[in-house]
Here is the input.
Amino acid sequence: MRHNGGWSVALSFAEPATGISWRLGEAGNFRETGFMDAFDPRTRRRMPNPSIQLDADQPATTIYVRYVDANGGLQGPFPIRFEPVGALEREQRKILEMTAGSWLSFREYNGLLLYYTHLMSYRCTIRQVRIDLTRRSRTGRSRCRRAIRRIQCRFRPTRSPILKSRPQPDWCR
Here is the structure.
């Protein structure tokens, strides 16, 4: 999971583990994850911390994980491919799918305002957003169309997107 401080990688195992260690790449020493302040009822020992932290600018790499099973045997190392771009896109797509009702919101303040902040928060998985509004009035219907082109996905905050559209009626600006 991506957050402001970097990446959190959650590990899970099919059998109880009494210790977890990891390293980045083929060489180097394994680092212990430490223990949580909780007991595992299966082993009756402190539960090993099942997560590791990576830097925000961590490039694609292979994480090697090994663990100590309940009998004291060392299992692994097991390679796990870490692709930050793909992981971010999958994570944000999942969030957008779960929160489809929150993508847009309206507010009446000196006219009708349309907020798309939610979409901006998870922009790394979006190629384009098209917004089409129809307003009915006494004189007929008028349309407001806006297209937000792909907004560059960076790990640092970016400026607001540029809305590319044709000239619009006053109520649509």
